[in-house]
Amino acid sequence: MGGPRLQRAWKEEEANGITAILTSTSLSLSLALHEDSLDLLVPSRIFGNCKKNQMSKQTYRVCFCFQRRFRLAVSEAPEDIKKLFEQYSENGIMTIDGLQRFLVEVQKEDKATREDAQKIIDSVKHFHRKGVNLEAFFKYLFGDINPPLASLGVHHDMSAPLSHYFIYTGHNSYLTGNQLSSECSDVPIINALKRGVRVIELDIWPNSTKDDVDVLHGGTLTTPVELIKCLRSIKEYAFVASEYPVVITLEDHLTPNLQAKVAEMVTQTFGEILFSPGPECFKEFPCPESLKRRIIISTKPPKEYLEAKEVKDKEDDSQRGKASDEEAWGNEVPDLKGSHVANYKNDLDEEDEEDTDDGDKSQHSLAPEYKHLIGILARKPKGGLDAWLKVDPDKVTRLSMSEQKFEKAVVTHGKQIVRFTRRNVLRVYPKSTRFDSSNYNPLIGWMHGVQMVAFNMQGHGRSLWLMHGMFKANGGCGYVKKPDFLLNAEEVFDPKIKLPVKTTLKVTVYMGEGWYYDFHHTHFDAYSPPDFYTRVGIAGVPADSVMKKTKILEDNWLPSWNEVFEFPLTVPELALLRIEVHEYDMSEKDDFGGQTCLPISELRSGIRAVPLYSRKGEKYNSVKLLMCFEFI
């Protein structure tokens, strides 16, 4: 077998579970773990050529003379799945009737019919027309036909006023990257609309020759894009993902003559789909159903152009140089439990103090053509928070507040904010120091009834994943009906009060697959298969928010964790299920393996295939988890 020295070396290493083969003619060395996860690499000069299935084995080069070859496991149903199959099958086949019973009893699909069961059987293309074997049953459970969210389309009541909905809202929607030096373009606007975003923000300024209008982030090095280009793109893509209304919020820095030009552009571009408000719209907002395929303009009647520009420049100068530290994963979503916001002083932000108006006085310089376009009027009267949050029974409005100001306001005026947002629209936007286009925890806005939690959609990170998750609800139409307790006129919801547990979500993380197909085999680790673990938890009111994690499984493209977690929920209506897969790295930061956020309100009970998404929110072709959800 190559001489006594080679045999002795093999014997000594085999005792440790590792086989090493040395040839007398070369120094090549091969490793194989004897747990069916690695394969013995046999030098062809000793044993001749051996044909090997390249898909079932994978080689990692440690150095020029050292390789590790791993056997790739075959995806196999977990034990719980096998037991369920046995329970609902006979003689190794689950019939149509057995599958229907499984759908009703385990998947909690109470209205499942024999026809539904037959469609599943047909979808897995199994040779048994009247049933499925274990392999086909597992294929159904782990397939696209078995998603975690119900395919209900738009199913919320869409006949309530706009103020009764959370609305998918963008901030500085024209920026391609950071807030200071990136390009302005219509491309991020198009991308946002394709995702279902319903509120697009445009900052409009005079161009360099003062005879036309550009869109840019004023007081920065961002390169402008023409307003007309943005408007045309909005018209083309507004209703690709949803037919419900698109709101354009304008941050206006124009002179009256340019306002008149904007009015002409807007009118000519949108034509009949432009919403022209009547006086009744300022007494109560219209409903999304009545505004299908309409464009709504929202802005605050501006001050004189120069005064507005001076305030903006002063704010930019005072904030310059303070950057956020959100990294590739995105910072962990801020914990609202001990509320760091309580330490803020109750003073007003400089931007909020100065960005106020004097009611009708501020409209004197407003071009009449421009004024008539405004479908949602934005105001911020003088007098601070008490004046801002005063509810007028005869008039509705939109109020904008910075992230920092809002975090302070919820400490002292939390109930007033909830009361204000029953009839009026509140928009909260990222603080000006988020130069990297990062975001904040959106739950602080939603649990106070804020309709427009404005986000930088061009970035990525955990906060934005929560935003994506919330608006997967209601068919992804961009409007999610607020829970009744946020609209209740009898009692004002207080997020700070801990409520009794309404339900408990039991989550089983069975296994994952797909990384082998969507990533290069050395993407996670140059020397071995990845070491995956899953983080799973809840984003919601402070009492519900928590994260837990599975054990780390080493050297496995098909991790099978089979771990169970329970999450008591006091306000399930606002809760999101957070799921992240990490690849453990002992010497560096853990690698990203996929993520998703799912609205608990639309989570399907039973065993489900959960597709994972990239940092940017793009769905992977193959990566998914097999999980089970039970409400107990």
Q: Percent of residues in helical segments?
A: 10-25%
Pick out the low-confidence regions: 1-55, 304-328, 339-354, 358-364
Class by alpha and beta content: alpha/beta
Integer average pLDDT = 81
In brief, what are we looking at here?
The protein has about 625 residues and is of the alpha/beta class. It has 17 helices and 25 strands. Helix 7 (about 185-195) packs parallel to helix 8 (about 225-235).
Detailed description of the structure:
It is an enzyme of class 3 (hydrolase). Residues 481-614 form the C2 domain. Residues 307-341 are annotated as: Disordered. With 632 residues, the chain is an alpha/beta fold. It folds into 3 domains: 79-142, Recoverin, domain 1; 165-302 and 368-481, TIM Barrel (Alpha-Beta Barrel), CATH 3.20.20; 503-631, Immunoglobulin-like (Sandwich). Helix 4 (96-105) crosses helix 5 (114-123), helix 7 (187-195) runs parallel beside helix 8 (227-237) and helix 8 packs parallel to helix 9.
Secondary structure layout:
Layout: H1 4-14, E1 29-31, H2 44-47, E2 57-63, E3 66-71, H3 79-87, E4 94-95, H4 96-105, H5 114-123, E5 131-132, H6 134-141, E6 165-167, E7 169-170, H7 187-195, E8 199-206, E9 213-215, E10 225-226, H8 227-237, E11 246-252, H9 256-270, E12 295-299, H10 305-319, H11 350-354, H12 368-371, E13 374-377, H13 385-388, E14 398-402, H14 403-423, E15 425-429, H15 443-446, E16 452-455, H16 462-470, E17 479-481, E18 503-513, H17 515-518, E19 532-539, E20 546-549, E21 560-569, E22 576-583, E23 591-599, E24 606-613, E25 619-631
Parallel strand pairs: 1-3, 7-16, 8-11, 11-12, 12-13, 14-15, 15-16
Antiparallel strand pairs: 2-3, 4-5, 6-17, 8-9, 9-10, 18-21, 18-25, 19-20, 19-22, 22-23, 24-25
Helix pairs in contact: 4-5, 7-8, 8-9
